[in-house]
Structures are given as C-alpha cells and as structure tokens.
Amino acid sequence: MNVALAVLYSGLISVDRFAAFNMMLSRPLVVSLVLGLLFGNSLECFFVGIIFEAIGLVDVPFGTRVPKEDSFGAFAGCSLLYFLPHTHEPNYVLLFLLILLMMYPVTLSLHITRAVNKKLYLRQQRSGRIYPLRLLVTGFCFSYARGVVFYTLGTFIIFHVYSFLHGNRNTDINFYLFSLMAFAFLSGYVLRFLSAKTYLKYAAFMLGLLIGWVIL
C-alpha cells in the first residue's frame, strides 16, 4: 500500500514541478519527508533530501530553461533506501552515482512532454480555435503520467543496475569515510558560479565523487 501511495505521489511531484501547480510538493526536502513518513525511515530520507537539495544548487536555472530532476533524485534515493537492505550502507556512494546519471534521461522526458504539449497548442491554433481548459487538463494529465512512469521506471532501473554491480563487486567501502567524503564533495555547489556548460559542471561533480569512491 505504501509503495502504491509513493507511485501516486510521484505524479504529483511532476505536476507540481512542471505544470505550474507550485505547492512545493516537488522540493527534495518535502519529497524526502513524505516518503520518510510512508516508508518509516524519516531520518535517513531527510538526509537524502538535504543531499539532493545541495546537488540542485549545482545548476540554478534561469528563464525557461529546464532544471535537472533533483526531485527524482530524492524520490529514487528514498525509495531505494526502503527496498535495499541496511547491510548495503557502505555502497550508497555507488547508488548516488547511478541516481545522478538517471536524472538526465528523466529530465529528457520532460522535454518530450513539453514538445507534445506545444504541438497540441499549435494544432488548436491552426484550427482557429483554442481551448485553454482542454490544454490545461491535457498538460496536467501528461505531466502526472510522466511522473508516475519515468520516476517508477527510473527507480526500477537503478535498483537492478545497482544490484548487478553490487553482486559483482568484491570490495566494501567504509561507510564512515564515505560520509566524510560526501560532506566534502557536497561543497561542490560553488560550481554553479562557474561560467561553463551545465554538463561540464555535472561532469566535474561526478568525477570528484567517483575519484573519492575509488580512493576509499
């Protein structure tokens, strides 16, 4: 039941984030709070929310540019904390790397959804009659479906990729050293002030995290 509620909530996250719902339901801290209450691990989810709030600061959007899906990161992180056994704690750094990678295709799904909405609007415009309510309802439904499908699918893919990689690794990472490393690398939010392409900022952030993981 809790998993079903989480899936339904993923649609609301998408609507709030990209369909002008604007009720703060999509902020990573709020996502982590809701999922923590559903799954019964509020403290761990709270820390996940803080991490993805910090990651979101790496790339501050402006204008109509689409921000990266830090909401999905919080959703996937909290969900996987629920499904994975606590004996996997030393390998959470690998989990976060996979989530960061999956944020890109999930963000791409938004571009596709927006393109579909735009085509629907242009088609009505060419016909000479525009139905605002129909466009709003259609956009709302598309956004909700996108959240349910891509958030759930993305989390499912991460879970199986992580399980495969974890099953083929013979070394463990000291969880306490990883905690220190995570706090150090989260200071990378200053990358947002650099005049560089977004993908270069994320590449630098992920490279730093990967190097720290290899060192440990």
From TrEMBL:
Its main location: membrane. The chain crosses the membrane at residues 29-58, 92-112, 133-161, 173-191, 198-215. Keywords: Cell membrane, Membrane, Phosphotransferase system, Sugar transport, Transmembrane, Transmembrane helix, Transport. It is found in: Cell membrane. One of its GO terms (biological process) is phosphoenolpyruvate-dependent sugar phosphotransferase system. It is a multi-pass membrane protein. InterPro entries: PTS_IIC_man (IPR004700). The keyword Lipid metabolism does not apply. It holds the Pfam family EII-Sor. One of its GO terms (cellular component) is plasma membrane. It comes from the Bacteria. The keyword Transport applies. This is PTS system mannose-specific IIC component. It comes from Seleniivibrio woodruffii. The lineage of its organism: Bacteria, Pseudomonadati, Deferribacterota, Deferribacteres, Deferribacterales.
